[in-house]
Amino acid sequence: METNGNSRSPQPLPYTMHGTDAVRIPGLAADISQQIAKYDSSEFDDDKEVQGGDAEGVWAPEIEQSFQEALAIYPPCGRRKIILSDEGKMYGRNELIARYIKLRTGKTRTRKQVSSHIQVLARRKLREIQAKLKVPGQGPTSYLDAAQREKALQSMQQMSSAQIVSATANMHPRMAPPVTYGGFWQHPGLGQTQDVKPFAQNPFLGEKTPTSLGMGMSALTGATQPTSPAWQGRSIATQKLRLVEFSAFVEQQREPETYNKHLFVQIGGPVTYSDPLLEPVDVRQIQDKFPEKKEGLKDLYEKGPQDAFFLVKFWADLNTNISEDTGAFYGVTSTYESPENMTIQCSTKVCSFGKQVVEKVETEYARFEGGRFLYKLHRSPMCEYMINFILKLKHLPEKYMMNSVLENFTILQVITNRDTGETLLCTAYVFEVSTSDHGAQHHIYKLVKE
């Protein structure tokens, strides 16, 4: 599989809780996880520590860079252990950082050295922040009043060293690990274990994050405030059109005023600057799963604009007790917003083994609301093919069988300007069955060609 060696900001990986003493991080590329797991744990024991403390020789630039990359990848988790997605072994965060350094540089750093370095950096960063907060009218926090400064100081003092260092590490772009595009289809249909949408912020910081600063850690570290909207680069959007929400559901009326609604898939919710930027996936890795002739994914991507193309991996929630008898309504709701007043056309193509099975085309007109134009395809009925597909899928006895079927099932949705024919958004959807107790999950990628 090819990797992308370009610089990009490392992002915290998604994770799930496993009891009270462990978390699972499934998002790291499998090849990195496997290499990290090969090292003998004794190599990172504290009694192997070399002399030098926190000196330059111990934390030379190349080692420091790998250290910072690992900080951004692995979230602070207190005394909890971290489980990598495939091999199931549990590691402390500091040992994973040490293993990552070993993988990237070939140099050994012990758990104790990592812990010591985190504490040194945290004390240094805390002094810098305290100095800025204690001088009214100077620096990037000059807008804070005395009460806010005091509250921020108290919040900072309650944070652990790992939380302070990780919070500030994610504010600065560094060289990140190569992205393995092939990992997306690594275990076709059967072996994907990740079932989590990345969180908007690190929950391990809990209530100790200094939210009283308004603009967060970036204000404290002197970072300039972004001028672009938070959704740019973090959601399905271009400058002309943005997907605000998307859901597919089944609904059944129980009482005259009571409805039971179940969501199969859903995209929505606020987007913040703390959300990671979308990861890239090469369009050539997936284009054979969609029609290749005219108006297929390959043809559309070549025509562009290429910033309008996205990939969504859904983990669909089929765990519903809604009766399959008549009376259940299967529908799709999607909302878009735009600074422009236009008429949009939405084409939804259901594909099997890369071939189009059925297409639904809808037209929607703009409604001006809240300073922008809204386009809402509300409760659009699912086609008969989709309803039957869902019902047959639910009847399969095992999830691996469902995923085997879904490996060859895709949906291509194209939004165009009806009058000009311009592609506004093109989203490719692929699916697996959710194994989470938290319902449907998803992950959004940016389609690229490199």
- Overall average residue pLDDT: 76
Shape field = globular
Distance between the termini: 13 Å
The unreliable regions are 1-13, 51-56, 137-144, 170-224
Helices and strands: which structural class? alpha+beta
* SSE order, one letter for each helix or strand: EEEHHEEHHHHEHEEEHEEEEEEHHEEE
- How many strands, what sense, and barrel or not for the largest sheet? 7 strands, mixed
Fraction of residues in helix: 10-25%
Instruction: Identify the strand order in the major beta sheet.
Output: 9-18-10-17-16-12-13
The total beta strand count reads: 18
How much of the polypeptide forms β-strand, as a percent range?
25-35%
SS summary, helix count: 10
Radius of gyration: 24 Å
SSE layout and pairings?
Layout: E1 3-4, E2 16-18, E3 22-25, H1 30-38, H2 61-73, E4 81-84, E5 90-91, H3 93-105, H4 111-134, H5 146-158, H6 161-169, E6 179-180, H7 217-220, E7 242-255, E8 258-267, E9 279-282, H8 297-303, E10 309-316, E11 329-338, E12 343-352, E13 355-365, E14 367-369, E15 372-381, H9 384-394, H10 399-406, E16 409-417, E17 423-433, E18 441-448
Parallel strand pairs: 3-4, 9-18, 10-17
Antiparallel strand pairs: 1-6, 2-3, 4-5, 7-8, 7-11, 10-18, 11-15, 12-13, 12-16, 14-15, 16-17
